[in-house]
Design a protein that fits this description.
Number of helices: 7
Mean pLDDT: 80
Number of strands: 4
Largest sheet: 2 strands, parallel
Shape: globular
Distance between the termini: 38 Å
Oligomer: single chain
Strand order of the largest sheet: 1-2
Order of helices and strands: EHHEHEHHEHH
Length: 139
Amino acid sequence: MEIHLLHVRNPLSQHVARFVSWRTRSAYHREQAEKTLAAARRMLEKSGVPYAAHVELGDDKARTIHNVARRLGADQILIGTARKNTIARIVRDSATNRLLEITHVPVEVVVGDWVSKLERYGIPAAIGTALGLLYLAVE
């Protein structure tokens, strides 16, 4: 068995990237990915399971995961996702849902913690939709 840990990061915007060197951006993305992958690394190392870690940049996380899985010849994709309420899933396109649509490799989804207390307890649909649209406009 061969395990590949993958962390997909959004690239910095052009407005920020033009003021930061490639080396600094690369170090930043590597550092953030290491923080994210640390718990999985510890678990695999403790169990003695060999693995390789990868960091990829991509605006479309689902497409990036799909492409890396194809490149590595993956037999299965295991993806972690945060719990989201229905409004959040409708307003914001889910990378997990997109991955399920585009890949031919079996995907297993592991659901983690709730995204936030605001989403956990729910918010009125009109407010949620407005906040979601505002979030998309800003992002």
